[in-house]
Design goal:
With 346 residues, the protein is of the alpha/beta class. The protein is built from twelve helices and ten strands.
Length: 346
Amino acid sequence: MDFIVLSRTNKFVFTESIESKAKHMALNHQTGDLDLIFTGSSRAEYQISQRVFKEHGLNTYNLGVAGARLVNFPSIIEKTVCFQPETVVMNISIQTLYDKNWDLPITVALKDIKILLESGAGFMDAGRAIMKFFAGTNRLRLYADPVNSQVRSLYSRFEPVKTNSGNWDNDKIIAPQKKVRNGVGNQDILSIPGCKVMQKNRISDKKISVKCSCGDGILFGSDTDASKLKGIVDLEKINMSKINFINILNHTLNKYGIDLLLIFEPNFYTKYIYDIDNLMGLIEPEIIDNSFILISKEPLLWGDNGHLNYKGRDLYSMLLAERIWDKLKEKKENSLKSGHVDKNSL
């Protein structure tokens, strides 16, 4: 199954798997040419704009993979080391650190289980992870969605048309028959800066999902429902095995001279109450806490209750790029004072 998925991957096409996106990154980037590699789930995939970071002087790749969970990060981060980025950015939801149990994905690799055991996860969580690995069905299920999407796209009116150059041509995307309910039309989708449309799927009459040949994902429309969410949630007991898990990943990257930056992703509507100072004392990599920021209150910036849409994505990427750029600049200036970095590198 790995062979089938990877054989479908090229410079302009990828599927929703760690292996496929890693190969796509390798086909588009060389060792040393990336400042940042963003890792995470579909939330990272849909909320990071590589174009916006490029405009801020930061070369990035979006290694967000739909369905990924915290336990998958060893497999994901392993794919980043050979590119020697300055920083690997790990995107998670703050509530993940307070969940008593580990939310296990469809597939778990041996390297994931190894770090899970080293982190001190409970017997039940480790046992479930091991059972998933040995079940044998996990890998088939992992690729069921991307393979099914490939089949459906053959008959979909949203099918991209391949040009002779092997790239996807935005001008030849077949126009949808209806507009998304919030007023987003086909022309808006065809004119996305920095995105050559690889695939386009209508999720509902309120929302369209677009995958870009650069590795980004974009949601058009807005289908939020705050009535399904709590306004304020108190987070109390930290799951220390997850803290240990993150610190182990940090040590792994540091051995290769790579920094790990942990970002608490923005949430729509819900404000979580927790002790950020306590977390910063326990977690070794630097943290940017974006769990509740201004865009959290704006429903029109969200594609659904969990993902930013194209408006929110650009705004969030701009704010995040400025914060990360400032951090990297400060780090280089400090290194310069120590005589480790040439001034021209700033």
